[in-house]
């Protein structure tokens, strides 16, 4: 079965990510602080700003990916258990 990551999807009943709200708030705070430092530093260029954004965004992506991976593992475990019980 092929899954298109870019297709419009409907959220599943267990689609909320607990880490998302906290992670986004923390990301925003860290990003703003990092960008402010980079703007203040006279020796830093647009490339430094881009690197700062990339680093901070990857941290956010990692946290959400960890939770998504755990949800996927939990779902697979539930599927295996329901087949075993049947």
Overview of this protein structure:
- Helix 1 runs antiparallel to helix 2.
- The relative contact order is 0.11.
- Helix content is 73%, strand content 0%.
- The protein has helices at 18-40, 46-85.
- The chain has one domain (18-85).
- It is an all-alpha fold.
- The protein contains 2 helices and no strands.
- The model has no long low-confidence stretch (mean pLDDT 79).
- The longest helix is centred in the last third of the chain and has 40 residues, at 46-85.
Instruction: Give the low-confidence spans.
Output: none
% residues in beta strands: under 5%
- Name the shape in a single word: rod-shaped
What structural category arises from helix and sheet content?
mainly alpha
Q: What are the salient characteristics of this protein?
A:
mainly alpha; 86 residues; single chain; 73% helix
Task: Please outline the helices and strands.
Elements: H1 18-40, H2 46-85
Helix pairs in contact: 1-2
Question: How would you briefly describe this protein structure?
Answer:
The chain is mostly helical and 86 residues long. It has helices spanning 18-40, 46-85.
């Amino acid at each position: 079965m092929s899954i298109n990551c870019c297709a419009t999807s409907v959220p599943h009943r267990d689609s909320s990510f607990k880490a998302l709200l906290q992670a986004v708030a923390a990301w925003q705070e860290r990003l703003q602080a990092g960008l402010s430092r980079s703007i203040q530093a006279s020796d830093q260029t647009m490339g430094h700003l881009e690197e700062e954004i990339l680093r901070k965004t990857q941290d956010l992506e990692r946290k959400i990916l960890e939770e998504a991976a755990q949800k996927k593992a939990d779902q697979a475990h539930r599927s295996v258990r329901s087949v075993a019980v049947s």
